[in-house]
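[User]
If only I could read backbone structure tokens as easily as an amino acid sequence. I have put the entry right below:
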Amino acid sequence: MFKSNQFSRTLLIAGMTALLAVQAVSLTGCGTKTDPASPAKTEISGPVKLGVLPIEDNLPFYVAEQEGMFKNKNMDVTLVPFASAQERDAALQAGQIDGEVADLVAVGLLQKSGTPVKVAAVGLGVTPQEGRFALLASPKSGINSLADLKNVPVAVSENSIIEFVDDQLLSDAGFHADEMKKTAIPKMPIRLQMLLSDQVKAAILPDPLAFLAEKQGAKLIADDTKKNISQTVLLFRQDSVEKKGEALKKVVQVYGEAGEAMTKEPNKYRSLVVEKANIPKEIQGSYALPTFSKPVPPTKEEVASVINWMVSKKLLDKAYTYEELVDTTLAP
């Protein structure tokens, strides 16, 4: 009897051992995720659509596209080209694109129009040397200093960052509001030609057109390379931030990495810059390519300066708060 019970117990233990061994093999097999024959799939981030113009501020997006930076991060990003800022902003308002690079005046106007947006980071203008705007005098104007511009009309595009820069440069020079005169010439190529042909005595232009104007005889009177007046910003629709926040953080990260690549090896991307930023042929070989800093949100002072100016110009009914306009979590 004893031997029979011992034999049965031995069989029971052997069976349990075999069962545990099978279960162990089964569990090990289920837990294997590093099998090179069946790698884990990484979720694609996006889709994200970005509106772009043929200007310097969008160059990091073009570099990222050329170098495959979006694909390397498994992102689904589409660059949607537009011929004008008006068309781009209309597409943003209609929800056809998620984001764009614009300026803080555009941010305020989009917010007022009923399209809430969030600023993620500065594009050009983290430092004063980036994204230069220049106040230039025509070749035969006889204007040689800011003091000569009292009561002299300056060609600008009204209700824009161009007019804001003009007001800041002149007010910093001690001008009163009634001493600042303006002529509205919205299209920059026409403004450039009228300046060079002495049809206007002074004008505000951004680079590269400002650089071209100097090369062709215009006189540099002042610019914003010593005091940071103007910035462009990377902005997104608020509902896109709510739905695609993680993907948009990657967009800002890639924008920064591509801008860093351009800054380190500018000549590598000169042909791309010439093509995508519409660099005039007269300066394609001599124009210094733009540099980009690490993406950071604009400061409260920078935002307030533009928004308060817009209120004073009656472009806005009220001053939006920094928190209404900026999402500091989107920059790396």
User: Anything to note?
Assistant: The chain has twelve helices and ten strands. The radius of gyration is 29 Å. Residues 44 and 74 are 5 Å apart (CA to CA). Confidence is low (pLDDT under 50) at residues 1-41.
